[in-house]
Every structure is written in C-alpha cells, then in structure tokens.
Amino acid sequence: MFEFKIDDSGQQQAPSGGLYDLAIVGAGPAGLSAAIYASRDGIKTLVFDKSSAGGLAATTDWIENYPGFPEGISGPDLMDRMQKQAERFGAELLEFEEVTQIEPVSKGHLRVHTASAEVFDAKMVLLALGSHPKKLNVPGEEEYYGRGVSYCATCDGPLFRDKDVVIVGAGNSGLQEGLNVLNYARSVTFIEFLPYSIAEKILQERTMNHPKSTFYFNHMLTEIKGDAVVTGVVMKNRETGAVVELPCDGVFIYVGYTPDTRFLEGLVEMNKWGYIKTDAQMWTGVEGLMAIGDVRASNLAQVTVAVADGTKAAIAAREYLAELEV
Ligand SMILES: Cc1cc2nc3c(=O)[nH]c(=O)nc-3n(C[C@H](O)[C@H](O)[C@H](O)COP(=O)(O)OP(=O)(O)OC[C@H]3O[C@@H](n4cnc5c(N)ncnc54)[C@H](O)[C@@H]3O)c2cc1C
User: 149-253: same fold as 19-131+259-325?
Assistant: First the structure.
C-alpha cells in the first residue's frame, strides 16, 4: 500500500489506489494536457512527477507564443493553471515520485514501479518525461552548482540582482532567459560556441540591442572559477585560440537538453539520442504504452506541441480502453 505523503505545502493526498485506467509519467504540459482530457472523460488517471508538477515550462520566466495569452504568461502561472484544470476533473497527482520501471504484465495491464519501491497498476501508460538540461562538463561546473552555477534562471536569477552574470548558450532558451536576467542584473554576457545565434530573430534583436548585454560568439567556456562561490569564467576563442578570463557572479547554462530514458532501454525503441520513437497516434509499439511531448523523437520542443501530443494520446487512450472492455 502507498503511504500517505505530505509535501512542503501539506497538500499532497495519497492516491486512491486500485487499478488505474491510465498512468501518466511526467506532469509537464504534455502529461497534464493528457490528464485534463482523460479525467474529463471519466478515465481514472494517476499522474507521477519526480519533481513538482509543471515540467520545464514551469522553469520558464515568460511564454509569449502559447495561444490565448496576447500579453504572454509566466511559465509557472500557465503550468499552475494546467495542473488545477487536470485536478478539477479528478486526475490524481503524485509529486516527488520518480518512476523507475514500466513492467508489461498482460494486455490491459502495465505495472509502474517507483523509486520509493511502490508499485501501481494501470491499464495503460503515457510516458511524458520531457528532457533535462545538458551539462557542459567543464571544471568548476559541478563544484559550484548551487553556488553561482544554475540551469534555471527563472528559479535562481533573482539572486543575481545588480550582479554580473554569464549565460552559456545563445539559442532560444539562453536568450529567452537572458532577457529575464537583463531586467535586474548589472550585466549579462552571452557565450556561444557557434559563430552565430540560432534563436528566433525577435529574441536576438531584444538581447543584442540591450545596453547591458555583451556577446562572445565562437567561444567555448572551458572553466568556471571561484572560491566559496563563483568568481569568474574562462573561455577560449575557437578561431584564434585566445583565452579570455571574465569575472562574474553567476553562470546559467543553456546548451541543450537530453531525455532521461535509460530506465526504458530494452523496452521501447529510441533514436540515438534516447528520444522515444512513436507512430502518429503516439504509440510506442509496446502494448498499452505511449510517449508524448519532448521525450518523443520529433524535432519540435514547444508547449503547443506537447499539449497537442497529450490531446492526441488521451483520445487514442479512450478508444484503447473502450476496446479492452469489449
Ligand atoms: C528556458 C526554456 C524556455 C522555454 N520557452 C518556451 C516558450 O517560450 N514557448 C514554448 O512553447 N516552449 C518553451 N520551452 C519548451 C517547453 O518548456 C517544453 O517544450 C515543454 O515543457 C515540454 O513539455 P513536456 O511535458 O513534454 O516535458 P517537460 O515540461 O520537460 O515535463 C516532463 C516532466 O516529467 C517529469 N519526469 C521525468 N522523468 C520522470 C520519471 N522517471 N518519473 C516521474 N516524473 C518524471 C519531469 O520532472 C517533468 O516535470 C522552453 C524551455 C526552456 C527550458
């Protein structure tokens, strides 16, 4: 039996237990959208998240391209609304519970194992695991993590008011979050491996024209230095080999994302980067098992795409569950 758990806010309830129609692993936009559709349809749904609900989108300061919010919406606010919407229709949410194994038992029966050695049974499972930030693997990165090094400017950026900040990576995520940090930091220096930015033009214009920003293109960060906390970075010009040392107080790393699918090796088919292959209906090829959102092998990692995947999967789930009854 699952023990009653209470999180920091005292909110979490024990799951009702028994055989769930649908288990969803991951409470980001993909998982929560599927949960909204499924639970509204009367499908008994349990959603797991190894962290708090909201996924990567909840670590994003401001989302301007999600339809329906002409002025944009904060990532945490958008995800809080999705969570409430799913719970309103009866989806059960289990936060801080990592799924470690999916065990196919029989047609219409999959078993979900978690890190706290609990076991849950469901007729089908949606994998909505998303992805997590890649590391640079340079000296100082691990040592100063939490002491000036961070992968989430939305979470930790306000600690750097009137400080000098480095953002590694000038893609969409780096520039979007850099814009946020520019609101309060004294300076923001962007370091990009490529000779150019691959971010949306609107983000490039806003950051590059900002009086507090500096860009180093074609530079590779090689070391993060510090004493008790971060004091600077070292980078290398990839063309000339010249080494530049830059004092700073904080380093935010946005150099891409990678899925955490090792526990599924041997069960589902993945591409060489570990993203799960599916058909157009989100089926993985394993009976009763689907994958949706960023964890799926597709070249678009956006909230709208995750939401659409979740919608398609929930509708396919309804049909699958109905067929099981026949
Ligand atoms: C800085 C930044 C800015 C962005 N800006 C935008 C933007 O402006 N517009 C836009 O459309 N998109 C944006 N994105 C992309 C968007 O956030 C993602 O595409 C979206 O969050 C993907 O949703 P998802 O549900 O597939 O995965 P995620 O949001 O990553 O959620 C996956 C969830 O699964 C959980 N999980 C993983 N493994 C397990 C496990 N084994 N057991 C239990 N739980 C697990 C994780 O904890 C996580 O909560 C941005 C991303 C970042 C990082």
Answer: yes
Position in ligand 1 atom list of the atom nearest CA 57: 17
Task: Specify the residue with its C-alpha closest to ligand 1, atom 35.
Answer: 26
> Relative to the CA of 29, which ligand 1 atom is closest?
25
Q: What pLDDT shows up at residue 117?
A: 87
Ligand 1 pocket test, candidate residues 24, 25, 36, 56, most atoms within 8 A of CB: 56
The 3 state secondary structure assigned to 54-106 is CCHHHHCCCECCCCCCCCCECHHHHHHHHHHHHHHCCCEEECCCCEEEEEEEE
| pLDDT (tens digit per residue) in 25-63 | 999 999 999 999 999 999 999 999 999 999 999 988 889
Instruction: For ligand 1, say whether the CB of 200 is within 6 Å of any of its atoms.
Output: no
CATH code of 149-253, in short, is: 3.50.50.60
- Ligand 1, atom 27: closest residue by C-alpha: 130
Angle at 135 between CA 133 and CA 141, to 5 degrees: 125
Dist. CA 226 → ligand 1 center (Å): 31
Any ligand 1 atom below 6 A from CB of 51: yes
Q: How far apart are CA 105 and CA 191, in angstroms?
A: 49
Q: Where are the domains of the chain?
A: 19-131+259-325, 149-253
Instruction: Give distance in angstroms: CA of 171 to centre of ligand 1.
Output: 16
Count other Cβ atoms within 10 Å, centred on residue 100.
13
pLDDT value at residue 326:
82
One of 3.30.980.10, 3.40.1390.10, 3.50.50.60, 3.40.50.620 is the CATH number of 19-131+259-325, namely 3.50.50.60
Low-confidence residues of the chain: pLDDT under 50: 1-7
Q: Can you give 257-271 as a three-state secondary structure string?
A: EECCCHHHCCCCCEC
Render pLDDT for 182-234 as a digit per residue (tens, 0 to 9).
999 999 999 999 999 999 999 999 999 999 999 999 999 999 999 999 999 99
